Amino acid sequence: MEFFRIKKDIPFMRHALAFNVISLITFALAVLFLLTRGLNLSVEFTGGTLMEINYAEAPQLEPIRQALANEGYPDAQVQNFGSARDILIRLPNREALDTARVSEKVMSSLAGVSASTPQLRRVEFVGPQVGKELATDGAMALLLVIAGIMLYLAMRFEWRFAVSAIIANLHDVIIILGFFAFFQWEFSLAVLAAVLAVLGYSVNESVVVFDRVRETFKKKRGLDTPEVLNHAITSTISRTVITHGSTQIMVLSMLLFGGETLHYFALALTIGICFGIYSSVLVASPLVMWLGVSREQFAKPKKQKEEAVV
Amino acid sequence: MGADGPRHLADVFHEAPTMNRYPLWKNLLIGFVLLIGLLYTLPNFYGEVPAVQVSSGKATLKLDPGKVTPRIEEALSAAGIANTGIFVDPTSVRARFASTDVQLKAKDAIEHALNPDPTDPSYVVALNLLSASPSWLTSLNALPMYLGLDLRGGVHFLLQVDMAGALTKRLDATAGDLRTQLRDKTIRHTGIAREGNAVVINFRDDATRQAARQAIGDFTADLQFNERDAGGDFKLIATLTPQAEKKIQEFAIKQNITTLHNRINELGVAEPVIQQQGADRIVVQLPGVQDVAKAKDILGRTATLEVRMVDDTPGALEGALNGAVPFGTELYTERGGSPLLVKKQVVLTGDRLTDAQPGFDGQTHEPAVHLTLDAAGSRIFRDVTRENVGKRMAILLIEKGKGEVITAPVIRSEIGGGRVQISGRMSTQEATDVALLLRAGSLAAPMEIIEERTVGPSLGAENIRKGFDSTMWGFAAIAVFMIAYYMMFGLVSVLALASNLLLLVALLSMLQATLTLPGIAAIALTLGMAIDANVLINERVREELRNGATPQAAITAGYDRAFDTILDSNITTLIAGIALLVFGSGPVRGFAVVHCLGIMTSMFSAVLVSRMLINLLYGRKRKLEKLSIGQVWKPGQ
Prior knowledge:
heterodimer; A: alpha+beta; Multidrug efflux transporter AcrB transmembrane fold; Alpha-Beta Plaits; four-stranded antiparallel sheet; two-stranded parallel ribbon; 11% strand; B: alpha+beta; Gyrase A, domain 2; five-stranded antiparallel sheet; 22 strands; 51% helix
């Protein structure tokens, strides 16, 4: 079996401008959704109480909401979770609320509401100070990843590659966040982990292409810069699709078998992987071209090059 | 790589036929690593069996496995219960049983034998799960992976220690101390009060203020001073030095942890985790605990310390032992085991104690415990000791309404100034323990639950199953695809991937890192990403073949050229992983640990293990015509 039988290099760079315009539009849309709709942050970031409750038979949600409102939680969100027999209750943090006792109070007020007895499956309570910290820690992690990767790429290749790879991959991150904002999917700590993992992963992709670009510049004298980029992308495309396909198989398996907890984690990875391919191939490479990469930058004396590798 | 084909071909023709062999030591080394991996993965296959765990139930009682183990064995054989192994570690003794029924019977039997008085248990007898792996594996320290709360069920609390509260408490005590101090030195002031984070003392004139400053400076080094004059008042403002503040905060969190330890012992939790997190937080994890309300009650409860006089009227103790306890006294047992008659009247409570530290007697150099009392406490203490020289005084820890004598020293002389020393017949270890106990009585600073996570046991089991299913099906699908697409090379890639999984699980078991659901997701994701290295290699080998290289040369060149790319891409992924590890908390950290470890094991398995297998398959064939790597299409065919 062999999927890719490419005789000539595909002229990706001829359409560079088009790709960049598409990227710019998706990027702008993502930013727009982020600004207008905002992320639906999970309790971990906002603080509050989250309870997962299981019933033997599907309960009516309205009486539950009523009971909670009577108990003094008019702002409680009650919804089904996974199946009709599982419900999820979200309570925001409020001043003058004895947070430590919320779960017990809710359970006791639910006891008489429906025919079957509720069973507490999971409680998550996060105080307001913790949530704020998690948000800043997340931002710090993102900055550290960006700085670390840029530094490494600048050392290993050239600053032009570092800049393009980071722009291309940050564009992925913003687009993932845009999806979460548009659909109002819950953005939890696990999703943040997925986003950062994607950042590292799609930089991989750019690295593989850039490796080839460097190799082609050194080996082939006759090609101009767009041709070199086309050649590099074409000769790695088979590997790109197979690798991402394999990773996607795993992620798909998580999406299918991982249940609710892993659902958004897997979803973030799926979007990240799809846009990762697109951006590292079709965004990073044109950027490198615009930034003016050329053969001369690689024609340094060999010895010096080896020093730069370490 | 069509265009550079000719030049490349020439290279190949000039080379001698390449052979792909690893030296014997390299094969042996890889085999050895895989064997170790297998060994440490094994315990995870045996699952867990029911067990009963015995640990100390009282802060004053140290578990002596040498004494407790025979008692457990005796109790079990008396009840006719067979165990499948008894394991001892420094803080607990655990016995394994064949089934949950036997486990419950055994728990009752052991409970009965070790705690004759059920209202005052000396030991915590808790149900637990132990690895069912054979003893020889356990003796190699090969344990199954340590499952997080989201996989085994239980409660997680994050407690915030109110440091401002600890400082105010100390300043209140300081204000009282200064009052006594100034009175002792007959320095007249017109008022001492705590205002916010400072103690303010008013004087009539500057000379008195300077004298006071001198006197207080001699008394403590923990304070720094400012002077302010307002409306005829000469104010001396004392604040804690930054060093003193830091010391108080460190002390507060340490004491709170100790107190929590003591309280959680009562819950009978098999493996509680109580750790400091950051400067002012404490994590408490109670696996298997479902009764959150009770857990919260116990965490929030206060134990108190009491100082009372010992009744040593001749004959009273003998009478009490015969059942006639005199009115107004209670019978206690000292730590050494001898009985003691203590008056009910409380001289002092633990609220008056500001510090307790182990140390040595200034003259005899015997181990001692140094106590510091606040101003009111020292006054009472001075009066009581003056009137009771030569008598004994008992220090009791009152918990759950029951008291226990920690120590009962003889008063040698009047003790003023609030500095009390307990010494005599103590080892250094005992002094440390007593100091800890005295401090542990109450919380040094109030605490607040700022994060709570409860996971029911059924959800935990479900999470394990879901995580396992995702990994298994994903792995199976990748395996099918790789073998279909790359044939023999695909099979080798799958074997390398399997060895990656093996090494990762072994590493997690060895490090006993906590495995959570995000951790399982990281295992799956890492496997999905790790296959990249093998795809890179296989694609390179195909490319070399396409350009006309001989099979042996294609293998060599494929592996060598892919390596740089593999290294680069793994390092960038690792950077992201490390950032997550540094800044992540909770679920993110669980993910990051596994992710980082997985990247490292994947380097080993994708490059070395797969190359070894390929070498063993093809390396020795001198006339190798074809590689089983699927179809290699050449342009122009």
